[in-house]
Queue: 3 jobs
Job 1
Amino acid sequence: MIVRATEKDAAKALFGELGIKIVSGHRFLGGFVGEKDEVHDFVLEKVTTWTSGVNKLAEAAEFYPQAAFAALSKTTGKTAAFDISVTSPLNTLTLLEAGVSASSAAQATETRKHMANDAKCNELGWLCVPLVAETYGAWGKEAMEAFSQLDSQLATHTCRLKSAVTFELYSRLKLHLVRANATAILTRCIQS
């Protein structure tokens, strides 16, 4: 039985003999019902688990960058295949598109990712979502839309401002990309 923390003792007195577990917060229908602190702890655990998964994905991407994808549910009802990659506006494949706007190299890479992956994703019932970052910091349009959906849901579940959640999400992603980049550079230096 879920009751307010202030009513927990009274509920135990009334229902304790029946063997009913009295709590002030618990998972319910895919979410969490309870006090704000407990909701925060629940969401923090979920975010920590998600961050751990992103870290593992980033580690795998060091050796298998094109195979780095994660299947997550999206609001469309389809499973999303996130294809994570970093592109340079100076890359010969994106050089012509790079001068158009700040994220045009990323958008060109998104288009190439769709051409390479859409058929297989459709066959599996997935939705291909390329998450492309440019080396100069710009993100592709689809990545920003996916992050916007994610931070909206996180803000709702954590009762925080969307802007604060967005800032935290991009800060964490930036940190992971910097670490992966440093690891890649050090690996090249060691191999040379």
Job 2
Amino acid sequence: MEVRPPELPVELFYGILLQGARDFIQHSRASVVQLALVSREAYQLIRPILYDRLIVTKENEKLFTQPEVFDALLAHVRYMHIVDEEVSIDIGHELLQRWNPPPGSTCFLDASLHFTIKYISEHPDTPLNGVRIINMSFSRAVFAGPDGQRLPRAFLRNLTHLAGHLPADLAHMDGEWELEFLAETPALTHLALQVVDYEGFDSFDEVRLFSYGTALITRALLKHSTLKCLCLRMAGTLTCDTTISVFQDLVKELQDMRLKVWFDTRHGEHGNIFSWHDSEQRWNKIELQLEVHDSFAGYDIWMPEERPSTEGQVICYSPSSSVTI
């Protein structure tokens, strides 16, 4: 007599399918596509997960010149990354004009200051509550870019997630910008700062000055009462032992679980930090490649501790131990 395995209820089968899509989307997008092709019903179920993230690059931008194709997808998009240095301005503008997420959704735009302001100006009631502004310094440009463009203050007041760059000369800043920044963003809960140097240092004293300057800014920002997460990404020559030591001590001293410091070593070994001088053009190209890779992989910018250990060292406070790596 033939013994047949019991059939699963349809609801349970689709539940397993949905959970599988959620588990695989960050590491194997192709596997999620295969799941979506199981049936029409499976595709309808998995589509919101499959199209949750939209990364627009030079290679795929022509796909978005057909409104009948991408209009149906944009309704599911909650994270949009426009690689502005490669993407056509016209295509970027068209996408932003048509992207209008429903109220109450948590949405994140990863783009240049130009595209960010363009989107906000055309969608004054946007539910957008998170932005990562490419190639923008936090010193003063968070309020105005090089060409005079500004992030609207009404938008800043409701902003909860923000990411951008700290200037390379932050050790020489007056320190008043932190207070201005915190006053402009009263609802901010998540802040990620890129702290990058690719030019090298003249002495160990200069390395320490840079590190301690960043540490002072970190202390000031952690006074923000609504801040739930402050993540620093240190890259380039700042992955040296001197900088790591400064922030290990800082994390131990502050004992603040909101602070995470990620020393990103994906640029490779740099040898002597006093003689490593890279071209800005080459550096920006590598940074762009890493940003696109992270977007497609679905990495959370606020959770560096979930990345593979081959991508660097993460220092954060844990009650069970002084630091976790």
Job 3
Amino acid sequence: MINDENLNGKEPFLKKENQLLFFLNGEKVIINEPNPELSTLDYIRSIGLTGLKRGCSEGACGSCTFMLSSVVKDSKTDTFRIVHRAVNGCLYPLCALDGMAVTTIEGLGSIDKGLHSIQERISENSGSQCGFCTPGIIMALYAFLRSNPNSTQKDIEQNFDGNLCRCTGYRPILDVAKSFANQSEQDQQELSLPPMATIDDKKDDTQMICPGTGKPCNCKSKTSHVSNNNNNNNNNNNNNNNNNNNNNNNNNNNNNNNNNNNNNNNNNNNFNNKI
């Protein structure tokens, strides 16, 4: 694999006519008269490196992401340097790889040869569910960190705009990615949450934050968002209902007394008739 140390400010190789020359996971690849319509994704998968996945074929999901390293000339110093970037293999033509270096998930690390630290943290923190998007996410993070080793958590999070997780497992993935960030004390401070609304009978006029809407409100009773007038009306209705129940009970008692008197009269009449 080429790097800035062995480049020494000089162009590493010269291309030949009708010949495609590039590096794949550190090995030189030469293709004579390559197919100009073939994508990088199709070629890499055709040779058995299936870590890159075909998802949308439109460069939107990021499942086919690999790292592309290219040599650029610095106009100020008149020397060459290497630039690393994440590329969607479904859109990048194979012939455009001429003179560049490609790194896929297989070249980054494996169980047999040893995992990269990004792969290890993804595995240990449950950042992979179905695993379809995982290689592309790992390569996007790796390429970003190679070019931005001192990036913050915010920078890393914004870098994942081009990678989708169909299992919606973004939280552990972002936690792993942010663990590689170079954070300052200010960036590490957590955002303060709005205070919850509390009930204070002694301070009825205190403005509080509603837990449902997050906006200022005046909660003056234990029943949220119910006015005092409604409470008074409810209390009056309850009292009226209680009075009606008492009246009904009294009427029932009177009816029972009348029935008892009638029964006594009937008994007396029967006794008189027998005499």
